[in-house]
Amino acid sequence: MSLTTTYNDMKVEQIYTGCIAHAAYYIENNGVAAVFDPLREVHPYIDRAQIDNAEIKYVFETHFHADFVSGHLDLRKKAGAEIVFGPGAKPAYEATIAKDGQIFEVGNYKVKVIHTPGHTMESTTYLLIDENGKEHGIITGDTLFIGDVGRPDLAQHVVADLTEEKLAGYLYDSLRNKIMPLSDDLIVYPNHGAGSACGKMMSKETTDTLGHQKKTNYALQNMSKEEFIKTLLTGLTAPPGYFPQNVLMNIKGYESLDTIMDRATQALTPDAFELVANETGALMLDTRDAEDFAKGFIPNSINIALDGNFAQWVGEMIPDVKQEILLITYPGKEEEAITRLSRVGYDYAVGYLKNGFDSWRKSGKDFETIKRITSEELEKQMKSGNPLIIDVRKKSEFDSEHIIGAINVPLNQINQHLAQFPKDKPFVLHCAGGYRSMIAASILKQRGWKDFVDVIGGFDDIKEHTSIKRSEYICPTTLL
């Protein structure tokens, strides 16, 4: 999704990617363009500049990102753009390390560097100034979101001395001394929106005025540094495991997406697919929808559907970004799957099943299924017995409302709590809508569980179509 805002004679195009809740930015003036925090695939930015007959002069990075691999290196290679980081950044490749207050010219526009450490130490906000000298807005990266601020616990996974308390203190100072003194009419352009794991309560809105944020954002209210640190750290869940690996890729560099695509777009017959799987130990990742996966899938394959928060759940459930991956997709969706894997650093897809799962089925090879039931069928089971129900939603979702007697094992903790899934009696799986529970079901199948069912439509369908009793209180059997 692309959103262009014009204010004070300056155009800023926000290029928003909903599946990872990411916003990149494009500005252009007088034949010169700049891109801020680009995604891994850079052709949309190059194509955009070509429409304007413009040269991409700069690619500005607000910080070393954790939740995605940036496209800055490919933009430098393909467009000749100069990479710019804020003060203190130490990339392992050629880049300009800006000074606090330094001005860069993009045509007649100006971009002013404002060093705002806290989320990370090199975190930088870029102040946009139009051709008339009027300050227009701030591209804040993960320093300031709409309704939230960046989490201060990521850098310690790379540098141990940078504790979350220290970083929260730096963030407090950056917000009070660098951001809040700026004009209320500035537009805030953050790097993420709701759904990102880089904050804990981001708004669905993707821009706002700084003045409104000063009134409504909890982190910008009047409080001491100690109160701020306590507030910021309260309720902060552990970051996804792939975050530190993405940070290191952004610091050290990575292969071009072209190289990754060449390696991954190998169409394999069922026999060749099976041979590669056996020889390499590659993980078989099925990206079809839950409904189709349940009807038939290759034994030992894992389901993470492309039509959802695909990249985020790949990052949560596959510990090593260097894991070799074999893809099963709907025909024509192979390149999309490879691209979305690469956005979060999973660069080692080694091929895909030609013509998708239908070719496997037609070849006569073995396949498995997963039994699913409707919410109404679950209600009948509960009236006639006491089935074990395992809810794989997040703890916060479970605590808000859940089926009385259900056990909570959040999906991202499933590998640490496999013992909670019995093999000697049946059980029922559900999440909110069926996406996450099918991921869980595929993992359990791979690990040898057989006697369970998945609820079609999940908790949302249970609420809408049944009278199953639900509780708004934490169930005593909650595990996490």
TrEMBL record:
<feature type="domain" description="Rhodanese">
    <location>
        <begin position="278"/>
        <end position="369"/>
    </location>
</feature>
<dbReference type="InterPro" id="IPR036866">
    <property type="entry name" value="RibonucZ/Hydroxyglut_hydro"/>
</dbReference>
<dbReference type="InterPro" id="IPR001763">
    <property type="entry name" value="Rhodanese-like_dom"/>
</dbReference>
<keyword id="KW-0479">Metal-binding</keyword>
<dbReference type="Pfam" id="PF00753">
    <property type="entry name" value="Lactamase_B"/>
</dbReference>
<feature type="domain" description="Rhodanese">
    <location>
        <begin position="383"/>
        <end position="467"/>
    </location>
</feature>
<dbReference type="InterPro" id="IPR044528">
    <property type="entry name" value="POD-like_MBL-fold"/>
</dbReference>
<dbReference type="InterPro" id="IPR001279">
    <property type="entry name" value="Metallo-B-lactamas"/>
</dbReference>
<dbReference type="InterPro" id="IPR036873">
    <property type="entry name" value="Rhodanese-like_dom_sf"/>
</dbReference>
<dbReference type="InterPro" id="IPR051682">
    <property type="entry name" value="Mito_Persulfide_Diox"/>
</dbReference>
<dbReference type="Pfam" id="PF00581">
    <property type="entry name" value="Rhodanese"/>
</dbReference>
<protein>
    <submittedName>
        <fullName>MBL fold metallo-hydrolase</fullName>
    </submittedName>
</protein>
